[in-house]
Amino acid sequence: MSSRVRDASQDAGVAPEFVVDPALLDAISPSGDRGGIVLGSGLQGEPLTVSALRSAPTRIVLVGGLYLARQVALRAMAVGAWVVVATGRPAAWQVLSNAAGTQPNGRPSPLVQIRRLSPVELPRPSEDAPLLVVHDGGPTPQDLFPPRSPWHTTVYVLPYLHPQADAVANAADLVLMQRLPAGQAELAARLWRLPPQMMRQLTTLKDDQVVALGRNLWRPLRLVTTSKEQQILGPVRRGD
C-alpha cells in the first residue's frame, strides 16, 4: 500500500516518519515497517501505535483531558491528515492552527480547520489525504460528523463519562481512557462489561498513563511527548 507521508520529526516534531496501516484498530502493537499514530510506550518501553487512519469509517472515543486529544490530532497532522476540530472552545485548539503554520500567502494552513459545533462540509478523505474530525462537544455529544467513508475517522472527546453517552461509547472502534474517579470507573465497567480488576486499574492510572480498550483489547500505555510537542502542548498531564 502506498501513502503520502511526511517526516514530522524535522519540523513539527510530533512523530517519526511512518505509513498509515489499514489494519484493524484493535491491533495496537509495537511499531513496525507499517505503523500508525504513535500513542506512547508499553511497560517495557516499546513504542505502541494505533491505526487510527484506515480504509474504513472509524470511531474513537477519548475519555480524558485536552492534552491527549490535542496530541492525537498533532500526530494525525504528522502523517498528512486533514484535521477538522468542531468545538465550543476554539481558543483551546488554536495551538493546532499555530503548529500547522501558514501558507506562502500568509494565510493559515488549510490542513487544520477549527469549526463551531454545527454541521459543515468536510474535506473529502482519501488514502493520500485521510481526514480526522475531532468532536469536542462535551460528555453527551451529538453525532454531527459520523464517519461515513474510508479514511474518515471521528474522535469524540468526552471530558467525563455520562450514562447518556452509551450509544457513542458502544459504537467506538477504540476507546482511550485516562484516570477516572471511582464513580466514573464503575460506569465504564457497566458500559464495557469490565471485570473488577480492570475497573480498579482505571482509578490508579498516573497522569501520563492511558488504557486502550477495544474488542479483545486492554492495553495500558505511557504517553511520550517530544521536546517540540512540549513546546506546543506543555508537559504531559491528565487535565486540560
Low-confidence stretches: 1-35
Query: What would the principal axes of the Cα set say about the shape?
Result: globular
Number of strands: 11
CATH homologous group name = P-loop containing nucleotide triphosphate hydrolases
Helix count equals 6
Overall mean confidence score, pLDDT:
82
Query: Largest sheet, described in full?
Result: 11 strands, mixed
In the CATH hierarchy, the third-tier topology is known as Rossmann fold
Can you describe this structure?
This protein is of the alpha/beta class and 240 residues long. It has one domain: P-loop containing nucleotide triphosphate hydrolases (Rossmann fold), CATH 3.40.50.300. It is 21% helix and 24% strand. It contains six helices and eleven strands. The protein has helices at residues 66-78, 94-100, 166-170, 182-192, 196-203, 227-233, and strands spanning 29-30, 37-41, 47-50, 58-63, 82-87, 112-115, 131-136, 152-158, 174-177, 209-214, 217-223. It has an eleven-stranded mixed beta sheet with strand order 1-3-2-11-10-9-4-8-7-5-6, covered by helices on one side. It starts with 28 loop residues before the first strand and ends in a 7-residue tail after the last helix. The model is unreliable at 1-35 (pLDDT under 50).
